[in-house]
């Protein structure tokens, strides 16, 4: 298996270059095509709005918007060309950014987006776009920390496993990466006895499935762990030297996670390495 089509979200922030760098490395690694999708929070200048503004203001707005997009495209093309990516495509769709992000994500193997940076004035937009791609894009989403990603992301992988649907979906979606990784460690967090039993029953099946794909994984399980799940996974990633985490996203309802916290929410806030999520 291999990824054949990757998409990376670009905007006017500093994180665009970091996301593009990782996207280029993955595209080169898998011989995949790479699509740059430019989406920004600036409201579209419709004819109705333009008619209410002074002519000079409209002209300045269009010039600034066009120049920002040209800079982003030049950076994307330069990085992809330097990384010897075979197929390169640039898109700057009009309309509502969230709908456009999901629509383009539905026709690729992997969507690469950014972690919201709390110090960025556009962090709210970045978070909404990231969640929309995860929940509506129907493809795995790879979230890149705003602090950047290491050069070897995807060679030492931690897989979060609870034997549930979202975890299984993420594992299946990540197979192209897992099959070429140097180390795969499956980490399970079982707070209740029923969780531990389900995980124990599933482990031999999972080990056999991974072995059929040439993946000899290690398994670690934490029973009755009082540490919050996301914090435990990040701690394990640091201890294992993992450069990528694979996990299901929003295994509970989004509303429940927002109220009670949750692994997905913790990852959005505190990820230290790229995180591949599927919903």
Biggest sheet: strand arrangement: 3-2-1-4-5-10-9-6-7-8
Domain unit count: 2
* Portion in strands: 15-25%
Count of DSSP-assigned helices: 11
N/C terminus separation: 20 Å
The sequence of SSEs as H and E is EHEHHEHEHEEHHEHEHEHHE
Average pLDDT, rounded to a whole number, is 87
Give the CATH architecture of the largest domain. 3-Layer(aba) Sandwich
| Count of distinct strands | 10
Low-confidence stretches: 45-52, 256-261
- Helical percent range? 40-55%
Computed over alpha carbons, the radius of gyration is: 20 Å
Q: How is the CATH topology of the largest domain named?
A: Rossmann fold
* Molecular shape: globular
What is this structure's SSE topology?
Blueprint: E1 5-10, H1 15-30, E2 33-38, H2 47-52, H3 55-82, E3 88-91, H4 97-105, E4 110-114, H5 123-136, E5 141-144, E6 156-160, H6 165-173, H7 175-178, E7 183-190, H8 193-212, E8 218-223, H9 229-240, E9 244-248, H10 254-260, H11 263-270, E10 275-278
What does this structure look like?
This protein has 279 residues and is an alpha/beta fold. It has two domains: 5-144, HUPs (Rossmann fold, 3-Layer(aba) Sandwich), CATH 3.40.50; 156-278, Rossmann fold (3-Layer(aba) Sandwich), CATH 3.40.50. It contains eleven helices and ten strands. It has helices at 15-30, 47-52, 55-82, 97-105, 123-136, 165-173, 175-178, 193-212, 229-240, 254-260, 263-270, and strands at 5-10, 33-38, 88-91, 110-114, 141-144, 156-160, 183-190, 218-223, 244-248, 275-278. It has a ten-stranded mixed β-sheet, with helices on both faces. Helix 8 links the parallel strand 7 (183-190) and strand 8 (218-223). It starts with a strand and ends with a strand.
């Amino acid at each position: 298996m291999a990824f054949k089509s990757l998409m990376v979200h670009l905007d006017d922030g500093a994180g665009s270059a970091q996301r593009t760098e990782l996207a280029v490395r993955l595209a080169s690694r898998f011989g995949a095509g790479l699509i740059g999708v430019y989406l920004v929070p600036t409201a579209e200048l419709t004819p109705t709005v333009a008619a209410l503004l002074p002519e000079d203001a409209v002209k300045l707005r269009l010039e600034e918007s066009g120049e920002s997009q040209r800079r982003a495209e030049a950076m994307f093309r330069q990085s992809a060309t330097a990384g010897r990516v075979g197929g390169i495509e640039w898109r700057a769709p009009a309309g509502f950014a969230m709908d456009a992000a999901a629509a383009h994500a539905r026709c690729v193997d992997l969507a690469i987006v950014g972690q919201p940076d709390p110090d960025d004035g556009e962090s709210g937009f970045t978070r909404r776009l990231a969640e929309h791609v995860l929940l509506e894009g129907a493809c795995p989403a790879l979230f890149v920390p705003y602090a950047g990603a290491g050069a070897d992301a995807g060679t030492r992988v931690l897989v979060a496993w609870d034997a549930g649907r979202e975890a299984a979906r993420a594992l299946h979606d990540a197979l192209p990466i897992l099959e070429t990784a140097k180390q795969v460690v499956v980490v399970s967090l079982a707070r209740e006895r029923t969780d531990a039993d389900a995980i124990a029953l599933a482990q031999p099946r999972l080990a056999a499935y991974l072995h059929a794909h040439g993946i000899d994984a290690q398994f670690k399980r934490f029973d009755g762990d009082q540490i919050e799940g996301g914090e435990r996974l990040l701690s394990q990633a640091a201890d294992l030297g993992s450069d990528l985490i694979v996990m299901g996203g929003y295994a509970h309802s989004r509303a429940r996670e927002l109220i009670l916290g949750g692994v997905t929410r913790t990852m959005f806030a505190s990820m230290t390495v790229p995180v591949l999520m599927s919903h």
